């Protein structure tokens, strides 16, 4: 079994500067069953110390793999996870998916032998332009074809150029997706059905384009566990690097449970001036345990910018209010709640604020 250190508190969420909570000492109602979902983790580079924000050392990676192989986890491909959720099929408890962004050469040279030896499936989200241009530090099409031929590897789409694609208009976004699809068909003989947003930046416009193009699912970089009530075009992943790859944080993440929510506002994670600060809100599923007075045990929300306040309305509705608009760039809100067996339920959002 996994170690008990992850039970203490949500370490990654506590990295945020501003928090609000709803809790009291009312006795708890009966525990519900565990929500059947999954956790997807993501990496970028391996043993490339000059890129600390995206680098994971082999020592850290091996510790993660050892935990995955030695604990009560079920590592499945992202395709299998998405198919199970799409078809309302069960997943084992503690289902984990592994993803890699950007197709850096260090995955092929350093990390892939580790994953292969441990028989762990991996999805590599690839931007086609750097590979086409044979940019230093990226894999080649020959290497990607070699990996694609292995049953443990799935190649995903990461747009043509690794840019802030949400800043583009709909026509340019469509051209980027079409261009990458054409190159994948030529280079690999097939087009990927899974997508990862560059920088985890999501907009409603881009999500709708991906849906219209026939993608099965798309992943951001917002922390959280995948629930049975998701928008498959906005699935969460836990990002890891050396700084945020400590054993405590890793165990916390892979043992997390979904915080299933609906009626999430704002619908668009691309925040224009007219919607900044956003009116954040969501409704927690009726199946989630409350105290006898209807409140939730230890519900906390954390913001990467600005002070926030949290209010629970009737029928499980939660409203989160920010003290000021977000600054341009990326901003996050994570909400956690203590679940059964000392595990944390987790729902997160990442917003993009244009200049």
From TrEMBL:
<comment type="function">
    <text>Is involved in generating a small heat-stable compound (Nod), an acylated oligomer of N-acetylglucosamine, that stimulates mitosis in various plant protoplasts.</text>
</comment>
<feature type="signal peptide">
    <location>
        <begin position="1"/>
        <end position="22"/>
    </location>
</feature>
<dbReference type="GO" id="GO:0016787">
    <property type="term" value="F:hydrolase activity"/>
</dbReference>
<keyword id="KW-0378">Hydrolase</keyword>
<keyword id="KW-0732">Signal</keyword>
<dbReference type="Pfam" id="PF01522">
    <property type="entry name" value="Polysacc_deac_1"/>
</dbReference>
<dbReference type="InterPro" id="IPR051398">
    <property type="entry name" value="Polysacch_Deacetylase"/>
</dbReference>
<comment type="similarity">
    <text>Belongs to the polysaccharide deacetylase family.</text>
</comment>
<feature type="domain" description="NodB homology">
    <location>
        <begin position="94"/>
        <end position="355"/>
    </location>
</feature>
<dbReference type="InterPro" id="IPR011330">
    <property type="entry name" value="Glyco_hydro/deAcase_b/a-brl"/>
</dbReference>
<protein>
    <recommendedName>
        <fullName>Chitooligosaccharide deacetylase</fullName>
    </recommendedName>
</protein>
<dbReference type="InterPro" id="IPR002509">
    <property type="entry name" value="NODB_dom"/>
</dbReference>
């Amino acid at each position: 079994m996994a170690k008990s250190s992850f039970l203490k508190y949500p370490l990654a969420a506590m990295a945020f500067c501003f928090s609000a909570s709803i809790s009291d000492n009312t006795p708890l109602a009966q525990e519900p069953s565990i929500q059947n979902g999954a956790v997807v983790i993501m990496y970028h580079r391996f043993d490339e110390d000059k890129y600390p924000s995206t680098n994971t050392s082999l020592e850290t990676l091996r510790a993660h793999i050892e935990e995955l192989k030695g604990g009560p986890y079920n590592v499945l491909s992202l395709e299998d996870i998405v198919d199970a959720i799409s078809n309302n099929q069960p997943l084992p408890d503690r289902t984990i998916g592994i993803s890699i962004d950007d197709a850096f050469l260090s995955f092929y040279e350093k990390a892939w032998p580790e994953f292969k030896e441990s028989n762990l499936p991996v999805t590599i989200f690839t931007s086609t332009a750097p590979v086409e241009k044979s940019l230093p530090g990226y894999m080649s099409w020959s290497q990607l074809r070699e990996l694609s031929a292995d049953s443990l590897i799935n190649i995903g789409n990461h747009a043509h150029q690794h840019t802030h694609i949400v800043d583009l208009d709909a026509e340019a976004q469509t051209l980027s997706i079409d261009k990458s699809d054409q190159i994948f068909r030529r280079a690999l003989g097939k087009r990927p059905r899974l997508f990862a947003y560059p920088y985890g930046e999501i907009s409603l416009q881009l999500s709708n384009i991906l849906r219209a193009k026939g993608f099965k699912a798309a992943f951001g970089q917002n922390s959280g566990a995948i629930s049975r009530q998701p928008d498959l075009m906005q699935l969460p992943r836990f990002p890891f690097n050396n700084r945020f790859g400590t054993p405590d944080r890793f165990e916390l993440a892979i043992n997390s449970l979904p915080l299933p929510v609906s009626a999430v506002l704002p619908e668009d994670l691309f925040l224009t001036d007219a919607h900044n600060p956003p009116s954040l809100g969501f409704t927690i599923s009726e199946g989630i345990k409350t105290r006898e007075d209807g409140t939730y045990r230890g519900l906390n929300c954390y913001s990467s910018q600005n002070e926030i306040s949290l209010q629970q309305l009737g029928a499980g509705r939660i409203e989160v209010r920010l003290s000021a608009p977000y600054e341009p760039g990326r901003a996050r809100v994570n909400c956690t709640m203590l679940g059964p067996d000392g595990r944390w339920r987790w729902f997160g959002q990442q917003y993009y604020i244009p200049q």
